[in-house]
Specification:
single chain, 184 residues, mainly alpha, 6 helices
Length: 184
């Protein structure tokens, strides 16, 4: 049988088959790249969690908890202050060298500034890190951003920490995290 309306050019058919294989190969390559990037972000998250676990001492965590309790309303603390020995102490004192809590809060901020830098570059899956350190991050951000009313302190001292929370604060607050300290 001869079908005059079907004119098969073998070269054209070969070109179309090559094109289809090229599309399939490109799709597989892009998918592999995306999955490897996701894996890399997860590995970076675990590395930063490990770095924080090694860098932050038990004393740092105890100091954070003490200030967390001292900065709540139940202790009589005003906004932007915490109570120490019955006195209202401004959050600015948390960032003064060797004054309060042996620089613990500044160390937290420095680490969170590094983490937020990696997050803003897209090399970190923030969900894993935030699960481990979410309460530390949100509370420390609150303290650092309430040092002054216009947030110049946190913007200049910890710019990536500020940018990440400024852009994604609502998203951060929706992420699950471990509860480190409860206020009663």
């Amino acid at each position: 049988m001869n079908f005059p309306f079907i004119a098969i050019d073998l070269q054209e058919l070969r070109d179309w088959i090559s094109f289809i294989f090229l599309i399939i190969g490109g799709t597989i390559a892009i998918r592999t790249f995306v999955l490897s990037q996701r894996q890399r972000r997860l590995e970076n998250s675990f590395r930063l969690i490990d770095l924080c676990n090694k860098t932050l001492t038990d004393n740092d965590r105890i100091n954070w908890h003490t200030i967390h309790v001292a900065s709540c309303e139940q202790t009589g603390a005003k906004r932007g202050f915490f109570v120490e020995n019955g006195k209202q102490v401004p959050f600015l004192d948390l960032f003064q060298p060797n004054v309060v809590a042996q620089d613990s809060i500044a160390r937290f901020c420095e680490l969170f500034n590094l983490v937020c830098y990696e997050y803003l570059k897209g090399t970190l899956d923030i969900r894993l890190f935030y699960f481990e350190y979410g309460q530390y991050m949100s509370t420390t951000y609150y303290w650092a951003s309430n040092v002054d009313n216009n947030r110049d302190f946190i913007r200049s001292s910890y710019p990536f920490f500020f940018k990440a929370f400024k852009r994604r604060e609502r998203r951060f607050l929706q992420l699950p995290h471990k509860t480190v300290s409860l206020l009663e």
